[in-house]
Design goal:
Strand order of the largest sheet: 2-3-4-5-6
Strand content: 5-15%
Largest sheet: 5 strands, parallel
Number of strands: 11
Order of helices and strands: EHEHEHEHEHEEHEHEHEEHHH
Number of helices: 11
Length: 325
């Protein structure tokens, strides 16, 4: 099935994933202007009234870009909605998204028919993130337009399944839009995601080490200095397993190799904010793909680099596969 027309202006088949605390209007605008989907969690806008201001800022900035650059219009943007019952802001945030007709919703922590129907009502498309085939089937049955399989190695809350296995199972029954997540920080990996059957790559940690990201300098530097061996998978901080930078865990006075298990009750969105927010500010999420990140730079430069890597990988793959055609 061809991708929805919403994605027609993409320079690369990439969605920048929504990063808790880190993704704001400046990052999203830069990503969309550079030709990839930019996104942010609705809960990053605090208080809730700030979401309206952010959506106004993003919409106006991208419209101005399109007027000035009709030959290379901006990519669409997305808002991530946590649809878990503890998100007390969901109804209010959805109403704000409806006001601005947000083109793309990314939903997490539960599949909700009413949320999907609301987005479709204003002409939006919904992608739902999943960690296995069972959750993928539930999301599509309830009306999700597409899927974001979160495979092993993804930053923040992540699954444990190989991307090969996850994509293989999903593509046996689903031919709609799929954006694969999990340790993707290089143009070669973007192409690999497509080779596995995904339409798009879902890239997160690479944006932490950009000038527009709302991350402290030490966090950005840690991503640049880190590699896959510096990532710790644990449920200690939110009650849900996720990937974090070892150095930040050590800086908090904890032993990364003896963290124990967390309680799921710490994942609470009551009042519009996570009780685990302090943990996310001090314990830094990151995926295993950060070995590809060697500098802090503007988003535009990072997208340029991804595109060059992607084009080089396409040419290299063509040469490698030629003898087998």
């Amino acid at each position: 099935m061809p991708l929805p027309a919403l994605f027609a202006n993409l320079r690369l088949p990439v969605i920048a994933s929504p990063l808790f605390i880190i993704s704001g209007p400046e990052l999203v605008i830069a990503q969309c202007k550079a030709g990839i989907v930019g996104s942010f969690p609705a809960l990053n806008a605090r208080p809730a009234s700030l979401l309206d201001e952010w959506l106004h800022q993003i919409t106006e900035a991208l419209a101005a870009h399109d007027r000035d650059h009709p030959d290379r219009p901006a990519a669409p943007f997305a808002v991530n909605q946590i649809v878990h019952r503890t998100n007390a802001r969901l109804d209010e945030d959805m109403a704000t998204c409806a006001k601005w007709k947000v083109p793309l919703l990314i939903t997490s922590l539960g599949a909700r028919e009413d949320v999907y129907a609301a987005a479709h009502g204003w002409g939006g498309i919904v992608l739902h993130d999943v960690i296995d085939d069972r959750f993928a089937r539930k999301a599509v049955e309830k009306g999700a337009d597409g899927l974001i399989p979160v495979a092993a190695g993804a930053g923040g809350h992540a699954g444990t399944q190989s991307p090969f296995a996850l994509m293989q199972e999903i593509r046996t029954w689903f031919d709609g839009p799929v954006a694969l997540s999990g340790a993707i920080a290089h143009g070669r990996s973007v192409l690999a995601a497509q080779a596995m059957g995904a339409d798009l790559a879902y890239v997160g940690s690479a944006w932490i080490a950009t000038e527009e990201a709302n991350a402290v300098p030490a966090y950005k530097d840690a991503v640049v200095a880190g590699s896959a061996r510096d990532i710790v998978y644990s449920s200690r901080f939110t009650g849900v397993h996720g990937n974090y930078l070892r150095s930040s865990i050590e800086a908090a006075g904890l032993d990364p190799d003896n963290l124990g298990e967390g309680e799921k009750t710490t994942m609470d969105f009551g009042g519009g904010a996570m009780t685990a927010a302090k943990a996310w500010k001090e314990i830094w999420g990151s995926g295993q793909g950060i070995g590809a990140i060697d500098r802090v730079e503007p988003v535009a430069a990072r997208v340029d680099r991804l595109e060059a890597q992607y084009r080089e990988a396409v040419a290299a793959l063509d040469a490698r596969t030629a003898p087998f055609r």
